[in-house]
Sequence to fold (362 residues):
Amino acid sequence: MNKFNTIFFLAIFSLIITVACSGSPDVMDTAIDKQKELDAAYGKATSEMVNDAKAKTDADAKTKADADASKPIVKMINLSTKYSDQTLQALVDLSVSKIADRKSNIIAIAYDIGANKGNSITDMPFEEHEVLISKDQIKSTINTIRSFLENDECIKDLGEEERKGTIDGEMERFTEWLEKGADATTQAQACATTRVVFNGAPTTQSEEDTLKTWVHELYHALQQDIALEPPAIDSWCDEEASQKSGWLVEGGADYFAQHIYAEYKGLNGLDEIFKYGLQSFNESGAGLYDGGIARTGAAALRLLVERGAVKHDSIIDGSLFQKCERVSVYHDNNPDVKIAKSSWSEIQYVYGKYSFKPSALK
Ligand SMILES: [Zn+2]
Fold:
């Protein structure tokens, strides 16, 4: 792909995700090694071992610092007045803790927006809203995102012209979104392993919708292969094929978000998927693309899991989105995919329990 095509591809694909996301609502790095603490305490208390203990403590601290330094960054900027840092961070930490092999540096921005002003935002399916964050907050956020991009290894590796173009182009649209109170719920792929998550949430939106969207967009940032292109990914994961697999990208994000939110709230993630799948069917019919693709896609993905064609764990740990299997395996000619796309809505609610009708599982 030449440079123009690359940018075009990323723009189109990110647009697909954004459109799909905007249509529907859409941790533990610091775990303390208790044994090491005890070892260190014991060493300090034993005078003849002081030097050894200190050496060990230093070595442990260095090992931990090295491990932390090598992990991709997940940074949050919370400008929301509705949701605490604690709540949003807990969801970030819980999400990140599930992922098997993280590659991307992520910065995620949450902010409130007020009444819709009805004006379109440039090149995006967003609209202008009353701005509820201060000019200083916008300025500081812009500076933080720019610095994040400038210090990112993937972006540093781009040629000078492309690097400058990427950073300036991204910052221009991010600035517009913040200054115009855009209802931006999206994940921007600034580079293959550099992702920027936006969650501009109307203050009137329910807690459930805002927090699920927060996790949904974060999952997109954790889906490795959606920002890869040949030769980094095999050539069969081309533009056309990638566009066709949008339902799986969206369904995966919703599947994950329903489970993470459910775990956070003490609910059942599977029930949430069935409940909203059935709701989509009742509102929009059995077409996979007729309702919000995220919710219908999640139900289709669940059907693939129950048919034994996809592993639940591969969705939750993100490994389903590392090698473009959404194109190489789960393409439209896959018999299970055909059934999942046509039968995702065959959901029943019997005696207080959701399940797929037996006909969908044959
Ligand atoms: Zn999405």
Notes: The CA atoms of residues 104 and 222 lie 7 Å apart.
